[in-house]
Design brief:
- This protein has seven helices and 13 strands.
- By secondary structure, the protein is α+β, with helices and mostly antiparallel strands.
- The strands form four sheets. Strands 7, 8, 9, 10, 11, 12 and 13 form a seven-stranded antiparallel beta sheet that branches. The protein has a two-stranded antiparallel sheet with strand order 1-2.
- Helix 3 runs parallel beside helix 5.
């Protein structure tokens, strides 16, 4: 796209009118037809592949499938006329005053988000992006001035995009780099109130922001299984929010055979991070072991070992590292787990956090429960940390590493203990 100001030129002949009525114009460069739709623009993002000399002559273009997100870069056209009747007068007025002063140079990030239908005219993108960029420049200035007023400091502004689950549209906010979670709490609370968002959970913290970067780990691998539990007319309660799937052999670390509870804990910590409740990084196995040693639960030789941990240790680490309290529910044998279905229903309905369960020599993560109170039929949505393969969603689904499991999945005679992490209350 090229957006430009048009200079008025005298009309031809005797008329006193001007040739251009509009002072701004937008047209697409390198495109023959100007009436393309947004969806048709994808064909112009294809990368041309040069022939290697053994195939056909010339270049060939790889077909691009339309997606739901298109990235555009913002450039400044230096040859563009800067002054029109719509801009502030450009006649220089210079006032010179000699004195000492402080100057500060701040990079202004432009990361604006605009929403447009794929069938809309492509030229309408410019108007949408112009508005988004213009508003963001104002928001950046407001964020910098707010920090200067509150703390007397200036730091780099950072842009974050959010899509709260109870809202039908994105929100873009600007926080300065030096700002802590508490700095903008009043600001966040006002946005929660204005948009009728819940006032008992964080939705607009940095960690709640959408990330479009390519990730090395899968998120929310249970999506698509919600209604496939097979429990007739039973009730269903599921995990809320976003988590990352942690399992054996990730991060080039071999914990096959002993690290399942560690991986389940990592999944739970990732949930609390991505819901904005904590800024604690997902801990490594060694960091988990050190935490347990530091609080006196384990001896020093535990660090670097391959010893298992259980639900109780998971609760200890969550409390110490993330400030998260947990409830514990146990059964003397796996055959009795169905008797705890109601408690799990209440947990997922009120808390919505992943549950770690340990029994025998195995640990798993429970993401949901389906239960028919009349018949007693029960199924559990299980995320299995024992998976050792690549980050391939199709394989994980096809092989049952994430899916609904019946009563026979559990060791019928083993003792089971569940760690039910609780959401911190009244946090925004």
């Amino acid at each position: 796209f090229l957006h430009r100001f048009l200079e008025k030129r005298p009309g031809k002949g005797w008329t006193s009118t001007v040739e251009h009525q509009e002072e701004e114009d937008c047209f697409m460069v390198g495109v023959e037809k100007q009436d393309l739709t947004v969806e048709q623009l994808w064909q112009y993002t294809a990368v041309e592949v040069e022939d290697d000399g053994w195939g056909t002559s010339g270049t060939k273009t790889v077909k691009v499938q339309p997606r739901d997100r298109m990235e555009l870069s913002c450039l400044w056209n230096y040859s563009n006329p800067a002054c029109t009747s719509r801009t502030i007068g450009c006649a220089p007025i210079v006032h010179r005053e000699v004195k000492e002063g402080t100057t500060c140079t701040i990079p202004v990030p432009i990361d604006a988000l605009g929403m447009v239908s794929s069938t809309a005219p492509a030229t309408s993108l410019m108007e949408i992006l112009k508005g988004a960029v213009g508003r963001q420049v104002g928001d950046v200035a407001a964020a910098v001035l707010s920090e200067l007023k509150m703390k007397g400091t200036i730091s780099t502004p950072e842009v974050f995009h959010f899509l709260p689950p109870s809202l039908g549209h994105h929100i873009t906010l600007v926080y300065t780099k030096a700002a802590t979670q508490g700095t903008f709490e009043t600001f966040r609370r006002s946005i929660h109130s204005n948009l009728l968002l819940p006032l008992d959970r964080p939705l607009l913290r940095r960690s709640n922001a959408i990330s479009w970067d390519k990730r090395d780990k899968l998120r929310n691998v249970h999506c698509g299984f919600e209604g496939k539990h097979g429990v007739g007319m039973g009730e269903v309660a599921l995990v809320e929010g976003v988590y990352t799937y942690h399992h054996y052999m990730q991060d080039m670390f071999d914990d096959d055979g002993w690290g399942c509870a560690y991986r389940s804990l990592q999944t739970i910590v990732s949930w609390f991070r991505q819901q904005g409740y904590t800024e604690t990084e997902v801990p490594t196995h060694k960091e988990i072991q050190k935490c347990l040693v530091d609080i006196g639960d384990k001896e020093t030789k535990f660090i670097g070992s391959k010893q298992w941990i259980g639900s109780t240790e998971v609760g200890f680490v969550l409390e110490t590292a993330c400030g998260v309290q947990s409830r514990f529910v146990s059964v003397s044998q796996g055959a009795d787990l169905s008797s705890k279905a109601r408690e799990l229903m209440v947990h997922f309905t009120t808390q919505g956090t992943p549950v770690m369960i340990g029994g025998g020599v195995y640990a798993h993560t429970i993401l949901g429960v389906a239960w028919d109170e009349g018949t007693g039929d029960c199924r559990w949505l299980i995320l299995d940390p024992h998976y050792t393969g690549a980050e391939d969603m199709k394989t994980i689904h096809a092989k049952g590493w994430c899916g609904w499991k019946g009563p026979n999945f559990w060791n019928q005679t083993a003792f089971y203990n569940m760690c039910l992490p609780q959401r911190p209350q009244e946090i925004i």
